[in-house]
Amino acid sequence: MLADSELRTLDLDASRALLTGRRATAVELVEAFQRFIPAADAEVHGYLALSPERALQQARRLDALVAAGQPLPPLAGLPMAIKDAISTRGVPTTCGSRILASYVPPYDATVVTRLEEAGALLLGKANCDEFAMGSSNENSAYGAVRNPHDLTRVPGGSSGGSAAVVAAGTAVAALGSDTGGSIRQPAAFCGVVGMMPSYGRVSRFGLIAFASSLDHIGPLARTVKDAAAVLQVIAGHDPLDATSAALPVPDYVAGLEAPITGLRVGVPREAFGAGLDADVERAVRAAIEDLARAGCEIVDVSLPHNNYAIATYYIIATAEASSNLARFDGVRYGYREPDSRTLAEMYRRTRDHGFGPEVKRRIMLGTYVLSAGYYDAFYRKALQARALLTEDYRKAFTQADVILTPTTPTPAFRLGEKTENPLEMYLADIYTVTADLVGIPGLSLPCGATPAGLPIGLQLLGRHFEEATLLRLAHRYERRRGAATAD
Amino acid sequence: MATTTSPLAAALTQFEPVIGLEVHVQLNTRSKAFCGCSTQFGTPPNSNTCPVCLGLPGALPVLNREAVLKAVQAALALQCQVGEVSIFARKNYFYPDLPKGYQISQFDRPLAEHGRLQLGDGKLIGITRVHMEEDAGKNMHEGFPDSVTTSYVDLNRSGVPLIEIVSEPDMRTPEEAHEYLTRLKEIMLYLDVSDCNMEEGSLRCDANVSVRRRGTEKLGTKAEIKNLNSFRFLQRALEYEIERQVAILKGGGRIRQETRLFNVAEGKTFPMRSKEQAHDYRYFPEPDLQPLVVSPAWQAEIAARLPELPQAKRQRLIATYGLSAYDAEVLTASQALADYFEAAVRHAALPAGGHAKAVANWIMGDLSAHLNRSGETFATTRVKPEHIAELVALIAGGKISGKIAKEVFEKMAASGHAPSAVVAESGVQQISDPAALDALIDAALAANPKQLEQYRGGKTALLAFFVGQVMKASRGQANPAVLNERLQAKLNG
């Protein structure tokens, strides 16, 4: 019998060891989590649905391999949660929206297929902001997620459920999606590792689109090594996603131990301006000093157009969203408002009642910026600003190998604190949105806590497809700090 | 027809129509534009569908290379400049047959631009652009028990690749528009990029039409006419619309820029409800697809492999075989027919280039009639090109008469045998041997002494009687020329 306390502190190596050492079968492991989750998740509300049959089926396959003395696949026995924005065949996938309340996908996202082939145990679907739009997970149609470190506070968003279940120990790792910071920001708020890979590194096939040119799937885990192991499995070209890159995937786990001496870590002077919480600044500066002691070269870099990032992001993301969310029209699947007299009325009422306020706000914004007469002033301008930001980073990466910033300007805020002011909520993504716009990889990992015990996140950004560098640096830093664990 | 003499003709004396066509051609690829589903027509509703063409959440498009190939072939055949980079864009609007709420199309950077198409009289019609897009599904409002209250959607067609070919406003009469569409269809069929079946919707046409006073340059306000799903409707709709616009202008009115639908039953165009045309499609680059790159090398490879197109083929047939323009036109109506003709005329049974007219006549006459009756095609018929060649050679060599040849043709069409075999089987070969004919003539003269006497007494019209007798005895196989000569010699000798 596995103790709850042991479940809470598992990592990939420990999970595998349970199986290979015959301390537990995979079926027992799944059953232990299924017993444990309902109570442990009751207040956090990180899960929207559990998928016991799917997990047990996979567990039986793994147990058969163990019994036959066969080698186990790389993620064998890793209990995972999947953000509910990612399609899972036969398991409800709501994307946090009422409009998809009844939707059960007939197919698996490519990442889900790859995880299962690699032996991961899919425990269930993680709560998220509706259509991944939000920075606090308060926009879920199925109720907010609470931060396991302080239940009065938000876990961040939009992958708030994914971060919270990993922090709470109700999953060992999770998949999230990041469009403007939605993996890294909740990872920072919840004190876990969150990695957004480069655009094109991981297939988006099956990820319910928010903003197609900005959406990334990535792992959340309690250690950099686990994040690397999950990324290893989900990365690589997918013929079903025309934007996925046909590039070889390096061995991320093997690369973790390479030296970091001489690595140039760029610190943008713009990152430490007004609005940055003092505790966050102190922790991040301490991390910089530690990396300097570890042999990194700390260099000053500038990202002069960073001020335009939030505006640029909210034009491009909402424009794409207004189009991506057009398919939720009540015609083929999901929610349809009954008793409409005309087609137009059915569309209007279905979308009015099916979508929450933030989603509708963004659809309207996006529709507006693409409209005749406004396209040039907004959408086209935003594309130009995006190009300037890309150029900023290209230049900065000639001086530095990695760029380091806080992940968020503040630690986790209180539930309800920013729901009345969308603009203030949008600023929670100030450090994260540019990486999405530029398409470069970003990683958040814990770098300390406030006196009240709220986690603080450190963000590392890298050149396109240089995830390995970020993982290596993060792994070394994590070692120096002592691996973050759920408590 | 009344329209050729009355209002239209009168209208055209003072006003000049200006017509441009937007033609959608469904590409006959095996699978859809952005997923692996079959494009087969007529399968049960929603059987050729998958997450991508159903627009399920999370599904992504992946471009079908065969569709690009066919689109580039079409663009090159229309003498367009194919851009090395073109961009897919989303055209956003809500409709139940459009599962994603947007159509993947191309907007400000289309596949190809600046082409032209030549009409029979040599006039060039400019092609503004050729772009790729995907088809929508089909709403089904009839045929279900609950059709009074409920509509259904069939998404089999959703995602089938299309090209849209937009012409310049270069046409000046409904006849020119009709011919443009005819030539366009012919080219698409030659390229085998589409079956161009208008009933099944694989060729669709919208027309932009305006009129202006003759002698003026400035274009009038145009109307866009939709729902032109046959060649005949295109012409009728244009005729009606031109009359309508001229009548308005003559009455001192103004033309409204609008979209109109052609009502087949009434033969008239009617404006669409303004709500239906108030679209702002909010085009923007499709983020799920990379820019489409057609490298110069690939383009050159495709250009090099283009088949001979109808216009070039007509000119070559005239030059090579001395055919009339009319014959060349008929024989190039389809690639299969032209290939058939050339296979026959080049066959070893015939001298090089010789007897082309005779071969053409057999193909356009007896063979076409046979295909019409039997429902066969030039590709499937059992009458092979070499059979036609052989048949013409048998006639030319005096082996059979033209009359017998018709019988031989019917027999070979029925059996699929070569004409020489048919001749051998039925013994219908022509008798040209003077000795053999002399024997038949002698027998005929001997059997009819009375008529012989009358002939020799001056009733020379009886020549035909003796010809008939010998023909009968030879079962029609006597060579008429030789028979005539020998018979006259005997009668007068």
Topology:
The complex is a heterodimer of chains A (487) and B (493).
Chain A: H1 4-8, H2 12-20, H3 26-40, E1 47-50, H4 52-67, E2 79-83, H5 110-117, E3 121-126, H6 160-168, E4 173-178, H7 184-190, E5 193-196, E6 216-221, H8 224-234, H9 252-255, E7 264-268, H10 278-293, E8 297-301, H11 309-324, H12 343-354, H13 357-370, H14 376-399, E9 402-406, H15 422-426, H16 433-438, E10 442-449, E11 455-462, H17 467-481
Parallel strand pairs in A: 2-3, 2-4, 7-8, 7-9
Antiparallel strand pairs in A: 1-3, 4-6, 5-6, 5-10, 9-11, 10-11
Helix pairs in contact in A: 3-4, 6-7, 8-17, 11-13, 11-14
Chain B: H1 2-5, H2 7-14, E1 15-26, H3 65-77, E2 81-82, E3 85-86, E4 88-92, E5 102-106, E6 112-118, E7 124-134, E8 138-140, E9 152-154, E10 161-167, H4 174-191, E11 203-213, E12 223-228, H5 231-250, E13 258-263, E14 268-271, H6 274-277, E15 284-285, E16 292-293, H7 296-304, H8 310-321, H9 325-331, H10 335-345, H11 356-374, H12 385-396, H13 402-415, H14 419-426, H15 434-447, H16 449-456, H17 463-473, H18 480-492
Parallel strand pairs in B: 12-13
Antiparallel strand pairs in B: 1-10, 1-11, 2-6, 3-16, 4-5, 4-15, 6-7, 7-10, 8-9, 11-12, 13-14
